[in-house]
Write a structure and sequence with these properties.
It is globular and about 40 Å long. By secondary structure, it is mainly beta.
């Protein structure tokens, strides 16, 4: 597991981006009933930095929702009619790098589905002390929990984040087979 957010009270997964033991990246979520929806990428090489982005939200061309995985700028899509991920308050801490034998860099979590152009632009740009994140309305960690950026939303730190749409992106590298 690279990044996972579980929800209260069920513990069901709101979003998860990971790499399987077979070195295959994936994105998944569960519905409020616990049904899992997953999209797999293609096998990645050991010791190679790979940009991975996952998103969920409405398709621009239809009313269907889309689960999307970008791997090295290649877009893979799974269309889901009216399926929605479970939402609710975060259960426990956000999970980062569980069983990862490798590295993570420039991980971002957005509270909306980003377009292919936005993903491509940010993929080729680095952040300087998080300034771009604060201006773009992303979510930040405070004590292990996702919170809205106070500079953007003027919300209280205890505000619950119920993510029905999201984008997760970052650079990842496994240094041994089997993550």
């Amino acid at each position: 597991v690279l990044i996972r957010r579980a929800t209260e009270p069920s513990g069901f997964v709101n979003f998860e981006l990971g790499v399987s033991v077979a070195q295959v990246p994936y994105v998944r979520f569960q519905t409020a009933l616990g049904t899992e929806y997953r999209l797999d990428g293609v096998r990645i090489e050991t010791n190679k930095w790979v940009p991975l982005t996952a998103s969920f939200g409405a398709s621009l061309s239809s009313n269907n929702s889309q689960l999307v995985l970008y791997q090295d700028s290649v877009r893979m899509v799974k269309s889901l009619t009216t399926i929605q991920p479970v939402t609710g308050s975060q259960r426990g801490f956000l999970t980062l790098g569980l069983n990862l034998i490798g590295d993570m860099d420039e991980v971002r979590i957005w509270n909306h589905q980003r377009s292919a152009d936005q993903i491509g632009t940010l993929r080729n740009r680095s952040l300087l002390f998080g300034q771009d994140i604060a201006q773009a309305g992303s979510l930040e960690l405070q004590g292990g929990y996702l919170q809205r950026s106070l500079q953007v939303f003027n919300s209280s730190p205890s505000e619950d984040i119920e993510l029905s749409r999201w984008t997760i992106e970052g650079w990842f590298r496994t240094t041994q087979p089997g993550v």
